[in-house]
Amino acid sequence: SYGGAIALDVALRRPRLVRTLTLYEPVAFGWLLGYNARHAPAREIVGVGRAIGRRVRRGDVAEAARLFVSYWSGPAAWDAMAAPARATLAQRMPQVAGHFESLFDRAPPLAALRCIERPVMLVTGERMKAPVRRIVELLQAWLPQVGCARIRDAGHMGPVTHPDAFAGVLTAFLGTRMSTTVATPLAATAQA
To answer: How confident is the model over 88-140, as pLDDT tens digits?
Structure first.
């Protein structure tokens, strides 16, 4: 997700370094906010990011980690994590809060995405969050060579929870370079 946002930035700044992009639920919040910061998905993710930041600033990194995991994967995911994994994630929360803030920064205009003249595969989980859904819709509308695949029953951590399905999408995309049999338009599969 964060890596997807970085990959898009690299593709815009250094296009010669990029042959293809495969992005799993890229959290390119700057484009979401630039498109309509008052829209519900934008308000939702800003609220989550700022709530995490407030907890980090007051030193409650464990609560920040719980909020982060619960937002992206549901409260049961936090409850299922082993204590050492929770502690490790809690230690990383200052960096995670910083990532949120950097992602909220102003992004280039959406029209800049037209300059990414490389094949892009957007991969999502069936249970994606509203902010990610809107980002993917914007990317689909502006990227010139884009396909989209959705992994059944997956959430934001799909590459970890559904590695075989993700690997299948990745293998097919890299093997066929945007075959229409792999890419399913998100609009056709999106739920209202």
So the answer is: 999 999 999 999 999 988 788 889 999 999 999 999 999 999 999 999 999 99
Q: Which amino acid is at 69?
A: V
**Cα 13 from Cα 54, distance rounded (Å):** 32
Contacts of 163 (CB under 8 A, 6+ apart): none
Query: How far is Cα 55 from Cα 141, in angstroms, rounded to an integer?
Result: 36
Pairing mode of beta strands 146-151, 120-125: parallel
Reading phi first (left if > 0) and then psi (alpha if -120 to 50, else beta), residue 18 is in: beta
Cα–Cα dist 28/137, whole Å: 12
Instruction: For residue 49, give the nearest of 29, 32, 35, 31 by alpha carbon.
Output: 29
Give which of 137, 109, 117 is closest to 25, Cα–Cα: 137
Question: 98 Cβ partners below 8 Å, 6+ apart?
Answer: none
Unique residue bearing structure tokens 């630039």: 34
- pLDDT tens for each residue of 69-87: 999 998 899 999 999 999 9
